[in-house]
Amino acid sequence: MSVASPASSAARLLADLAAVVGPEGLIHHHDELIVYECDGYVIEKSVPDVVVFPTTTEQVARVVRLCNQHDVPFVPRGAGTSLAGGTLAVGGGVMICLTRMDKIVEINLPDRTAVVEPGLVNVRLTRALAGTGFHYAPDPSSQGACTIGGNVATNSGGPHTLKYGVTVNHVLGVELVLPDGSIVEVGGKVEDPPGYDLIGLVVGNEGTFGIVTKITVGLTRDPESGRTLLGVFDSVDAATQTVSDIIANGIVPAALEMLDTLMIQAVEQAFRFGFPTDAGAVLIIEVDGLEAGMDEQAEAIRKLVLKNGGTVPKAIPWRTRKEPDYVAIWKSRKSAFGAIGRLSPSYCTQDGVVPRTKLPHILREITRIGAKYQIRIGNVFHAGDGNIHPILLFDERDEEEVARVILASHEILEECVNCGGSVTGEHGIGVEKISFMPKLFGPDDLSAMVAIRSAFNPEGRCSPEKMIPGGGGCLERRSPGRHASA
Amino acid sequence: MNWPNPPAEHHAIADGRHAHAIDRPGSPEDLASTLAQRVAEGLAIYPRGGGTAMHVGGPPARPGVLVESNRMTRIIDYPAADMTISVEAGITMKALQATLAREGQFLPLDTPESGQATLGGVYATNTWGPRRFGYGRPRDHIIGIRFAKADGTLVKGGGRVVKNVAGYDFPKLLTGSLGTLGVICEITLKVRPKAEDSALVVAAFTSLDALGNTLGALNTSATRPVAIDVLNAPAARHVLAEMAPSSPWVLVLGFEEAKATVSWQVDHIGRELGGADVRVVRGDEAGPVWSALTDFQSTGPGVVKLRVALPPSLLITLLGRIDPADWQVQAHAGTGTLHMQTNAGREMDQTAADLQRLRIACAKGGGHVIVASCPTEAKGPLKVWGDPRPDWALGARVKAALDPAGAMNPGRFFDTMGT
Question: Which CATH number fits domain A104-221: 3.40.30.10, 3.30.1440.10, 3.30.465.10, 1.10.10.10?
């Protein structure tokens, strides 16, 4: 047997892959591949050698087996909305793009489950369920683009996780192509199958366990009604104090979102919802449930807003999530990141978490850090969860400013850790935050995580250099991420 | 090393097997070093909390020690306004709930024998009760964990904030792992405000068809019960005592919310239930009934106790195949889960045949049956954990990753019981 040259071995890989997915099912020209050099985290870039678009589980498994035979790394990708570089093709290799596996396989209302393929865009399931009285609860702000497979990989949240939980609380089972190319059903169609809760592990694995090719999710009943209140405050302090008061008063809102002045102005310019642009902060406070008792809850919240010196210029009563005022306020919130473009050429969104009562503290710290590094920082985030998204504005042509943005980001995240929080509530570790893992976890914790990864992915060929430090050089950040949605 | 002769009753592990010693470490660090030392001596580790669920799983496979958590009961941190709490795993559920109640909060996990059962034990065994439908499973409330591995290291996962995706989700992996991956030392939980009011609506049904129609309608009911329990006649007599209607089926709906919301629902469900014979217990009166519904799984005459799961839409068909002369049944209809136990006098070979039929019926919908309790000699034949599942091989690899020596609770879980 003769030793093949690198060129001919690449050609053989291409030919083998084409035999599996067909010539229409892959791209390999550099100008086409450039789209796949990064995801929503645009700083680290790495062009895959080839991107394949399988349409069946069997194709995914055959592609994975070819990657093993050819000894090349591979990485799954959905819509590429990840904000932490989770789909970066570190070391090149084969990117397995699941967007052509986008079917809703089954909707079973009596048992409140649905089976979907991983490339299904999140909002398509929402639309398919409209009018049935049921919905799929996780609703990331990027739900118009992100895929449910990607949601499973990163354990995505969204504004309504406060009451309804994140992706892991709604996934019952998956079909998983392991890094050796074998196919295994993990979990099932009912809860608590005998054995370990591997679904609990698989959701949020950031692609390090293999490739999810089918997902069984649980559905949630629509609330009968709700109230969405706009609370307006002179200061961020007054708004965060109100968040603490609402939670401490035993109210479990469906959503509790905050925007500060900078974000209010950006959103108002873009959407003209009617946010007061001179306010220090606004809160979008949503409660839902039975109509009976709903007014009392809304009134209790209004009193807490007033107690902290705020006002409630809008209170939207709703029966479905399609009413125009309701749609408008959530469009403003979910599109907030898109509105930033009006303020700054570039921006970097961070994703930190603090205990809810530490929100006033962390927001004061963000202001201090912004002043220290002379960086404008806006805030739009899931206040009820303590999940902050400071947005650092900068011009990426200004290298010196970029360096200050990185320092400021790190200082904010370190303060989150100091407060007993975390460096990611929903965007994941990816490649971006891998250097923070040793600050959150000790050596014994990390070696247990490495052991778990090796149980699924012994050769580390699937999604190398992601999430858990070890097994390769540490990735140093050179400049911050830019785009975001949360 | 051999099994010791029974030195004293409190050395009993389970299934007639006894421990060489009982270790009661006072801190996670003590616990970790105890594990390393005992494993170095060639002993297996059998973790025990309150000892209320030691019957769960296969017989202990090889000689070892009991490691108890009952000296580890500290409240580590309770920032009530954040609605989270970090505690050591040896705290009893009753003590934990009492601590939370002082702040008007609670952990929505129903626990039988809560004065004895520990938080760590509840999590290791994945124990739950009727409120699961409304509030979720144990895994839905845990946000952080610290556990000791057999090699003497302490590992943490998750954290103390309610939303966190940094690192693999050890809190969920350890939930329901029956002490086979490590001993849980500390747990951080999301807690909830205690509901202002509570009511249970008890309705009698003479036919399974009528019950089935009602359960179907509950899927779109204007009310939102947090518990939907169905009891067959012998289970109803056991749970509800003199309150039990003399009908073959009893539906119990639980509501917990603000007073006005509970009132509206009780009123409304009465109308939705139409002709059914309905009785309501409310507020303080409801407390003992909730407890009785929770305790069914650990009380009663059953020599064999089962935990069953299937898609809710198959429930009525299944119930139609279960003879009330032989089995007491509590179906948590909202989630398609059941607690069942044999009536007194049921022969083991008949039970085994019933179990086989149940398993076939459940498997049709992707469900399963776990034998939660049975005599030692029946554990092998009845296959406590059921037939092998597609992800068990992967589970065994996870086990090997965290307990390569196989020291933790050998023989008890699916991975070491053999099938």
Answer: 3.30.465.10
